[in-house]
Amino acid sequence: MAYDVTLIPGDGIGPELAEATRRVLDATGVKFNWEIKNAGIDEMEISGSVLPQDTIDSVRRNKVAIKGPITTPVGKGFRSVNVALRKELDLYACLRPCRLYKGVRTRYDNVDLVIVRENTEDLYAGIEFKRGTPEAEELIEVIARLGGSRIRPDSGISIKPISEFGTRRIVTFAFEYARANKRKKVSAVHKANIMKHTDGLYLEVARQVAKEYPDIEFNDVIVDNMCMQLVQSPEHYDVLVLPNLYGDILSDLCAGLVGGLGMAPGGNIGEGIALFEPTHGSAPRYKGLNKLNPIAMILSGVMMLRYLKEFDTAERLDKAIADVIEEGKDVTYDMKLDHNDPTAVGTAEAADAIIRKLQEL
Ligand code: NAD
Fold it and tell me: What total of structural domains would you count in the chain?
């Protein structure tokens, strides 16, 4: 049997990483019918759309997809394609394991965390009002009338919705994940001391859900404190469940603990549908240079294999990656002690090394 999977190469370094990942996944022996669909800035130049309907339809039909990163212009231009895909397909849970592989250069010796980030709400929902527009002015008046404080008239406004429904769904996902994967503790991250009606609601609902899982330890940590705790002693944490924005930021922090963005995979999961992608972005400066690390995207492929219940193959591929990292020879520059190490290999060659290891196992 072959799996129908949508492959979205993305833009920037995406296509190089997607090609490396596709070759590695094909080399596992599991059969895939790749439906290659485009999205991103290159696609915009071709078809005038950053996210063609055909691409969304393909993911909806196949129910499994893997994608490379896609650029979002900073402070202007079109809205994030990544956010649009997650919202459109209701991929509400972003799962990002951060595990330290032997041989990775890092200050830590024991990190095995899982980030569970809510993917559809919070400041990331993209509900925004541009400074000086009639809508922003009206909103400022409404807020003043309703007894909120007077917002400066030259303000832009982003809205932070957090619902009971969305929170219950993501915290339940985190506990179910913990139970299914023999994890011991779930920590809810928030700023409920300040944002009482959004993060406060999040915390209240998280505490209610935690009561349904007496077999799993639960605690809550304020987000700023959590940043410090993670940098000092990440071994004290296990599964972290966070609203969208904190989840975004702490994902990169945790990637830093385990060797950097080149080592951080992810999956966006909904009801019966999943899209896997690395945590990192499109690193446009490196586009076409065959330089950056394909491991984060290949590890996203390992997550996809597990999602497809190809557990033995997932373990074999994970071991092949671990062996290549531990040998430390055929790895990209970010995995070398000295970033200018001339023995660092390129994206394609790192994938070749993983394929060779796969064939030995
Ligand atoms: P980025 O993650 O693209 O890159 C930041 C830095 O991290 C790079 O300069 C590089 O040094 C390092 N890095 C990233 N990927 C790496 C890899 N595979 N191997 C080794 N090192 C790696 O972050 P950015 O520069 O802030 O964002 C660039 C673009 O990507 C933006 O438009 C942003 O919106 C977008 N983005 C997309 C996604 C996504 O597609 N899901 C996620 C994050 C950012």
Answer: 3
